[in-house]
Design brief:
The protein is an all-alpha fold and 40 residues long. 52% of the residues lie in helices and 0% in strands. The longest helix is centred in the middle third of the chain and has 14 residues, at 9-22. The protein is extended.
Length: 40
């Protein structure tokens, strides 16, 4: 769930449930987050 959709306590709890269901890697990949890029 994009953070822009987290507008209520219920939305946050649903996002946490989705994270728990999918797992960290799949959840982050689903929303376009990846590994941190090294800084120069």
């Amino acid at each position: 769930m994009p953070h822009s959709k987290l507008t209520s306590r219920e939305a946050v709890l649903k996002a946490i449930q989705e994270f728990d269901r999918l797992g960290r890697e799949a959840f982050l990949a689903k929303y376009g987050f990846g590994k941190k890029k090294p800084t120069p």
